UniProtKB/TrEMBL annotation, chain A:
Belongs to the ETF beta-subunit/FixA family. Transmembrane segments: none annotated. Coiled coil: none annotated. Keywords: Electron transport, Transport. Heterodimer of an alpha and a beta subunit. This is Electron transfer flavoprotein subunit beta. The keyword Phosphoprotein does not apply. The electron transfer flavoprotein serves as a specific electron acceptor for other dehydrogenases. It transfers the electrons to the main respiratory chain via ETF-ubiquinone oxidoreductase (ETF dehydrogenase). Residues 23-214 form the Electron transfer flavoprotein alpha/beta-subunit N-terminal domain. The lineage of its organism: Bacteria, Bacillati, Actinomycetota, Actinomycetes, Frankiales. One of its GO terms (cellular component) is cytosol. InterPro entries: ETF_a/b_N, ETF_b, ETF_beta_N, Rossmann-like_a/b/a_fold.
From TrEMBL, chain B:
The keyword Signal does not apply. Binds 1 FAD per dimer. It comes from Frankia nepalensis. Residues 4-186 form the Electron transfer flavoprotein alpha/beta-subunit N-terminal domain. Its cofactor is FAD. This is Electron transfer flavoprotein subunit alpha/FixB family protein. Heterodimer of an alpha and a beta subunit. It holds the Pfam family ETF. The lineage of its organism: Bacteria, Bacillati, Actinomycetota, Actinomycetes, Frankiales. GO terms for molecular function: electron transfer activity; flavin adenine dinucleotide binding. Gene3D superfamilies: HUPs, TPP-binding domain.
């Protein structure tokens, strides 16, 4: 199995996330950045499938130079090699441009399986799996809490989360799978893994290298634009009271005063 | 007036409340045209509702193709209608399925996509709350036909009864769109309560409940309030409550009038799914729990004492 897994570097989950005052893109400079937590589940699933069926796991990311830290993490978890699409011209790309760029890189790797996660924690689009399936003309197996691959038969099946349960969805390989965090428990990189990661092949591509038209990428060519961004009015600090045997009654009093009951 | 396409959100034909919200919003932007896609025989159940909420036209596609495959066929329907009807915008609900359909529609029509809008003005400027609602952004699509994903509970649905024209859409779904086949549907979630994302009141339970059977306390409180039941990831991971009820970054995003968190610490990933609730009440025995930093009303105490008393007190006040 030739497996591609996408990972995105995002501001640390606990960091106070902000938009850059000038161009209204995510401030990735004044915060610590980490691999999108959900992508750890994607990498783990790719590694598990490789361990079960053999093959190779290639990590693909699009992001600034320092996104290489996130690539290293995926390699130290056990991925075999990586492609880093990085170019100042790509800065500020929207989801449609990002998907077009990633699809171009992924197609050149001719994978049997593409694995993404359901959501990146900074922008929270939850769309990349669907967009990659659309761009690559492959089956969309997103929202997967369980994946079963049968490389011999060329089949893949998932349990797809639904509103009131799940759907069993089947497709032929190659396919795009999008995982949710119920799917596995990501491993921690071992010391050996961290050392090995330094020697694994990493290909760095510019937009041009990837065959992307310079006029189609980046903030200026995006299909949507941020006109204005402001901090939300701060929540008024609440009332905190201690239960003295009448806690339930006190809450009911508050709810009644707010006309909520 | 140009059309505004609204993708009808429904369960086996029964429209979800968010459909009424989208039609209400669409009326302010142009002529609302509902797009119904579903299995054969399901449209009949949606018809009266769509008329009630002011659809001027309904495009209908009833076929196994749109019902039996993930996402792609419905995106083909929307893309065809974008081409044929040249609408001002396409509005879809911010559900897991529909946001994916919206994204594919935008890609097919070479249009811009905006997700998680909570308001859209007449000039198609959308308001998004980003970073869990801590930053408010105004954004606009600058290319193609704006495809806008609107969060449930963003507006109140207002009826505007009419008699829409029905148009059966003549479309053959391509083979490539029929590649991810839904072979079975398995129900797991508890039913009989309001939809989590549509409910006006949500009561959620976390690890503090200690065991699956203690969710009965949360359910009982929820039922006195006509509320939906949510859960933290700790609770769903422990198997105490179905995953479908998880609230948070990787669960559902809710913004009800009232959110009551029971035995939930308020981790950032939980907060991401409920922070825009109008009023937040927290019950937690740890005065240092992060949830108290953003609760409107926090009760420091043992949930096993507080919750039953609260339930009784609400019952009493209802008389
Ligand atoms: C606050 C905010 C709001 C935004 N709103 C919009 C909007 O409304 N419309 C719009 O078109 N764009 C929007 N963008 C831009 C958009 O987020 C980026 O283009 C982004 O790369 C794709 O969306 P996502 O991160 O939400 O991906 P998601 O769809 O949430 O990500 C799912 C998975 O896709 C993969 N993935 C995503 N991005 C990359 C990457 N660069 N490299 C490798 N893998 C990746 C990861 O595996 C990830 O887990 C917004 C950005 C921000 C910061
Ligand atoms: C990729 C990723 C995605 C995630 N997505 C989500 C998500 O979507 N939703 C989500 O919720 N979490 C999510 N999490 C997990 C999140 O980080 C927290 O671990 C989780 O929210 C904790 O759940 P909890 O508050 O129920 O448990 P805890 O943090 O253990 O809190 C339990 C609370 O109960 C209180 N308590 C205990 N006993 C009592 C009592 N008798 N009376 C009153 N209070 C009591 C304790 O004081 C404590 O504050 C995610 C994490 C990751 C890494």
């Amino acid at each position: 199995m030739n497996i591609v897994v996408t990972v995105k570097q995002v501001p640390d989950t606990w960091a106070e996330k902000k938009l850059d005052a000038a161009d209204k893109t995510v401030d990735r400079v004044s915060v610590d950045n980490v691999m999108n937590e959900m992508d750890e589940y994607g990498v783990e699933e790719a590694l598990k499938i490789k361990e079960a069926h053999g093959g190779e796991v290639t990590v693909v990311t699009m992001g600034p130079a320092k996104a290489v830290e996130t690539i290293r993490k995926a390699l130290s978890m056990g991925a075999d090699k990586a492609v880093h699409l990085t170019d100042d011209a790509l800065h500020g790309s929207d989801a449609l441009q990002t998907s077009a760029a990633l699809a171009k890189v992924i197609a050149s790797l001719s994978p049997d399986l593409v694995i993404t996660a359901s959501e990146a924690s900074d922008a929270r689009g939850g769309v990349m799996g669907a967009l990659l399936a659309e761009r690559l003309g492959l089956p969309q197996l997103t929202q997967a809490r369980k994946v079963t691959v049968d490389p011999g038969a060329g089949k893949v099946a998932i349990e797809r989360l639904a509103d009131n349960g799940y759907s069993l969805v089947e497709a032929s390989l190659p396919a795009v799978v999008g995982v949710v965090e119920k799917i596995n428990q990501p491993r921690y990189p071992s010391f050996k893994g961290i050392m090995a990661a330094k020697k694994k092949p990493l290909t760095t591509l510019s937009a041009g290298d990837a065959g992307l038209d310079a006029g189609s990428v980046g903030l200026a060519a995006a299909a949507s634009t941020v006109l204005d961004a402001n901090p939300a009015p701060p929540r008024q600090s609440g009332t905190i009271v201690k239960d003295e045997g009448d806690g339930g009654t006190k809450i009911a009093g508050f709810l009644a005063a707010q006309k909520l009951i | 007036m140009a059309e505004v396409l609204v993708l009808v959100e429904h369960a086996d034909g029964e429209p979800k409340k968010v459909t009424g919200e989208l039609l209400t919003l669409a009326r302010e932007l142009g002529e609302p045209a509902a797009v119904f896609t579903g299995a054969p025989g399901t449209y009949a159940k949606a018809k009266a509702y769509l008329a009630e909420y002011g659809a001027a036209k309904v495009y209908v596609v009833e076929s196994d193709d749109v019902a039996e495959y993930v996402g792609a066929p419905i995106a083909e329907v929307l893309a065809k209608l974008v081409g044929d009807a040249a609408p001002t915008a396409v509005l879809v609900a911010a559900t897991a399925d529909s946001r994916e359909i919206a994204a594919r529609t935008a890609a097919k029509t070479d249009s811009g996509l905006i997700w998680d809008a909570v308001a859209v003005t007449g000039d198609l400027v959308a308001t998004q709350g980003v970073f869990g609602g801590s930053t408010i952004v105004q954004s606009k699509v600058t290319k193609g036909t704006p495809v806008i994903v609107v969060r449930p509970n963003s507006t109140a649905p207002v009826a505007a009864p009419g008699s829409p024209a029905e148009v059966t859409v003549d479309i053959a779904i391509s083979d490539v769109a029929k590649s991810a086949k839904i072979v079975d549907r398995v129900a797991e979630a508890k039913s009989g309560r309001p939809d989590l994302t549509e409910a006006q009141v949500v009561v959620s339970g976390g690890r503090g409940l200690g065991a699956a059977e203690h969710f009965a306390l949360v359910e009982k409180l929820a039922d006195t309030l006509g509320a939906a039941v949510g859960a933290s990831r700790a609770a769903t991971d422990a198997g105490w409550y179905p995953h479908q009820n998880q609230v948070g970054q990787t669960g559902k995003t809710v913004s009800p009038q009232l959110y009551i968190a029971v035995g939930i610490s308020g981790a950032i990933q939980h907060r991401a799914g409920m922070q825009t609730s109008k009023t937040i009440v927290a019950i937690n025995k740890d005065p240092e729990a992060p949830i108290f930093e953003f609760a409107d009303y926090g009760l420091v105490g043992d949930l096993f004492n507080v919750v039953p008393q609260l339930t009784d007190e609400i019952e009493k006040r209802k008389g």
